[in-house]
Amino acid sequence: MAYKTPLTLFKAVSLCCLLSSQVACGGSSDEQTAQAPVTAEPITGAVPSDTTWQSSHQTVAFLNRATFGAKPSDLELYQSTTASEWFETQLNAPPSYLMASIEQYVRPEDYNEPSLIYMASTSFAFWQHAINAEDQLRQRVAFALSEILVTSTNSGDELAEHAEAMASYQDILIKHAFGNYRDLLRDVTYSPTMGFYLTYLGNEKGDEATGKVPDENYARELLQLFTIGVEKLNLDGSQMRDNNGQPIETYTNNDIQGLARVFTGLNLNEEALEESVAKAFSVPMWVFDEDHSLKEKTFLGQTIAANTFTEESVEQALDTIFNHPNVAPFISRQLIQRLVSSNPSPAYIKRVASSFETGYFELPNETRVGAGKRGDLAATTAAILFDQEALNPTGEQRGKIREPIIRFTQWARAFNAANIWPEFILPLWDTSSATRLGQHPYRSPSVFNFFRPGYAAPGSKTAQNNLVAPELQITNATSIPGYINFMTYFISGAQQNVDIEEVEEAIESEGLDLDPDDAPNSFLVEYSNALNYADNAQALVDYLNLLLSANQLSEQTNDRIVQTISSLSSPEQRVKVAILMVMTSADYLVQQ
Description:
- Helix content is 44%, strand content 3%.
- It is built from 29 helices and eight strands.
- Helix 7 (136-146) crosses helix 9, helix 17 (327-339) crosses helix 19 (377-385) and helix 27 (555-566) runs antiparallel to helix 28 (571-583).
- The protein is globular and about 80 Å long.
- Among the domains are: 7-24 and 38-179 and 326-432 and 438-463 and 467-472, no CATH class; 217-322, no CATH class.
- The model is unreliable at 1-39 (pLDDT under 50).
- The chain is mainly α.
- Keywords: Signal.
- It holds the Pfam family DUF1800.
């Protein structure tokens, strides 16, 4: 049964949560009651012809879901290409990997005593790629995957001290963003970054004499968070229920114990370790069969025979998990939430999950996307972005709160930020504080991500209407003014007001090959397009409304901004205040 709450209410209750600070950690809304089990069927284009982009605002809306933000040059993109052609071009764009980007910050001594700038270099690389990379769709999908298959430098351990660890993990997600989810699971499993984060790196077989048992951390999160979830689902994401109307668990603790035996015998690559710990964290883990449990491993109704060694055990286990019917709806729903809508309808989830199952999707121009193999992420992404609920987000249960990270990158792209040199801007070294963005790439507080997919603020109207708003879990009375102040800093150009002498001293102390004279030129934005409209307050707001929010501003918000900037005499001040008011309005914060 579909929810009956329109987007206007979702926007209103979201703003209510923002302003009344009714946000707390934990809590989730119940899933919908399942109907009869649903099976997969081929899904074709969601629109009859390739008319996805019929105007500038439709182009901006599409790109704001598919990239880290539309650019001014994209406003008329619909006149020169189609959405299908753009999507195909993005699929064929060469991947931009982060590992090469961090090399400029590495000194030999960092491997013994890591410098602060070296440890922050993975963050620098993220900002550079999110804002400037040509393979925007791949980068955006990889970021969405990072919020499902979570690793984090938040705990201040070796993952933070060795920049290569997180960069190599990010590159795994970038590599497989248009690949197959099964291949992604394998590379994630052998990643020393994941091995260290979820404590199975160096995991050894049990010892009955001492009572020692294999570490269960990865086995549990692999099932709970990365693949199938805790309750059986139909293809449309709804819960299956037993004869008593109760949800059906997907696994038990016995399954976790059996699966934990699989992930024994994996450790750092010894050859790479001879070079450096950082190098060992940048290549797949080695197999050490002598540490692997040779006992029978039973889980999810399947058994891996006794005396099966590490590599074969891992392959059989991942095959079993990947082929579980929950994977398609469980992963599809979360990817929809990261890109398009917090509350996709069961029909939307089913359509996307069907493309995950069949491994293909037909674009509106009749081009087939996907290799026809279950788990194809290119087909799944196409199904998400070209679905009718994404392209025509009017009516009930549409939209999502824009993540703070995405808001910032959108600003940088919307105004053609040049010289993306985050090393010169201290606020970008760590934006996780609620006084900044309240979120930093690859630095979530736990394996449960920055926010849970089922989160609804307790006592809020969102929860009362059986809706979820994941991003509101990191929204509170501190983060609201924190975001406003953070954006004010950049929109106003304060990042250019640096003390060259202080920068030079810092560079010398770090022994870096950087030019301090570059500091005032970092993140230079171009407001010339907006300044062309500055003499006409309404025209300026119309331009920013299109570029930043795809014409989502309400009449009330529009009038309030026009009235405010009309009282300002400086054209540049008008532009900056108007941008800030648009990007802090409730109309903008809810992406439709």
